[in-house]
Amino acid sequence: MTARTQVLDPEVGKAMSALSAAAKKGLGDSGLAELVQIRASQLNHCAFCLDMHLELARKHGVSEKQLDLLYAWEEAEDLYSERERAALALTEAVTVLTEGFVPDDVYERAARHFDDARLAHLIGLITVINGWNRLMVSRRIPPGGRAW
Amino acid sequence: MTTNETTDNTTSNTTDTTSYVPEHTPRLAWAKLAPDVYKAMIRLDTAARQGVDPVLLELVKIRASQINHCAFCVDMHSKDALAAGESVERIIQLSAWEESQHFYTAKEVAALALTEAVTVLTDGFVPDEVYDVAAKQFDEAELAQLIAAITVINAWNRFGVTCRMVAGHYQAGEHR
Fold first, then answer.
1. CA–CA gap between residue A123 and residue A107 (Å, rounded)
2. Membrane-spanning residues where (chain A) (predicted)?
3. d(CA B31, CA B160)
4. What pTM, to 2 d.p., does this model score?
5. Which of A80, B7, B29, B160 satisfies CB 3.0 to 4.6 Å to B72 for a cystine?
6. pLDDT at B41
7. Of A131, A37, A116, which Cα lies nearest the Cα of B43?
8. What distance, in Å, lies between the first and last C-alpha atoms of chain B?
């Protein structure tokens, strides 16, 4: 597979990276950050992002079992903490906006496990991975390819 | 992002809004809670609008915000578009642009089709025909900026919807 285009304004790329860094830092949980980013990338079918974040997740010590079953996390409750599941439910709701809003129960569940500042950064992280997914899928950047 | 208890709608021509459903409150003041993230979003927004025709940009922003149901963003970008001289007709027709292409240029139609495809990623990929039509209308650098601009409004939509930002209080030009 070849990319449709590798062109991306360097300032856009840098601003995206800054956004990612700010969101991750504020969330302060690199394993969870990878789970969130992988799940969003699954929903958005972003091969480039999946490849990259699966590798990063392993680096951060996320278990193979958690990665294998992430696609069906709701049916594999025991593998994920309450906090992780709250974050994953929020990830799905914020990623699939086109079908509705972010339901109150999903939001409130996340709000129980994350204080306001962490929650704002978690929403930021879900948003930024959705951004990367769009930049990579639209330009059809292959897994492991050069993104810009 | 402040909570307004009243239904006072300064931008509406409707004389009586007292019978309207009361305004909801936002869920989270995300920009205050994550100023670093907000700052990065502003930087990203500024970068992504370089080289994109401002008239087209507002159309793209309104359409993506409609698809993502972001009330705050629809309010903001409709007002900004109107203030910039956009016609009411073209704004209204955006939700049915596929059947009202004669309101738009071929370039705008290509950009709107791309906006839809890039916004609704969860249903599939960005189809070749949509991409190819856009690639005929925009050169490679312009197209990359357009993709970035679509990406950025999708990001604002996510903050707006998730944090339930309240529509109606935006004044045209406020966030420019």
1. 10
2. none
3. 11
4. 0.93
5. B160
6. 98
7. A131
8. 17
> Residue B22 corresponds to which amino acid?
P
Among B41, B50, B119, B121, pick the best mutation site for testing chain A contact (most A Cβ within 10 A). Answer: B121
Helices and strands per DSSP (H, E), number in chain B: 8, 0
The answer to whether B97 and B112 are in contact (CB under 8 A) is yes
DSSP letters for A84-136: HHHHHHHHHHHH-GGG----HHHHHHHHHHS-HHHHHHHHHHHHHHHHHHHHH
What six digits make up the tokens of A2?
């070849």
State the burial class of residue A45 (Cβ atoms within 10 Å of its Cβ: 0-12, 13-18, 19+): middle
pLDDT score for B176: 62
Instruction: Please identify among residues 2-31 of chain B the ones whose CB lies closer than 8 Å to any CB of chain A.
Output: 27-30
Angstroms from A2 CA to nearest CA on chain B: 13
Q: What is the interface size between A and B, counted as CB pairs within 8 Å?
A: 160
The closest of A128, A110, A120 to B35, measured between CA atoms, is: A120
Reported confidence tier of residue B14, pLDDT bands at 50, 70, 90 = low
Q: In a 3-state reduction of DSSP, which class is residue A19?
A: helix
Helix B128-137 and helix B140-162: axis angle, to 10°? 120
Alpha helices per DSSP H over A2-115: 10-27, 30-43, 47-59, 64-68, 82-95, 104-113
Instruction: Closest CB to A26: pick one of B34, B121, B143.
Output: B34
Per-residue pLDDT of B34-80, as tens digits, reads 999 999 999 999 999 999 999 999 999 999 999 999 999 999 999 99
The structure tokens listed for A14 are 């840098």
Average pLDDT score over chain B: 92
List, in order of start, the domains of chain B with CATH numbers.
24-162 (1.20.1290.10)
Q: Which of B36, B144, B164 sits opposite A22 (nearest CB)?
A: B36
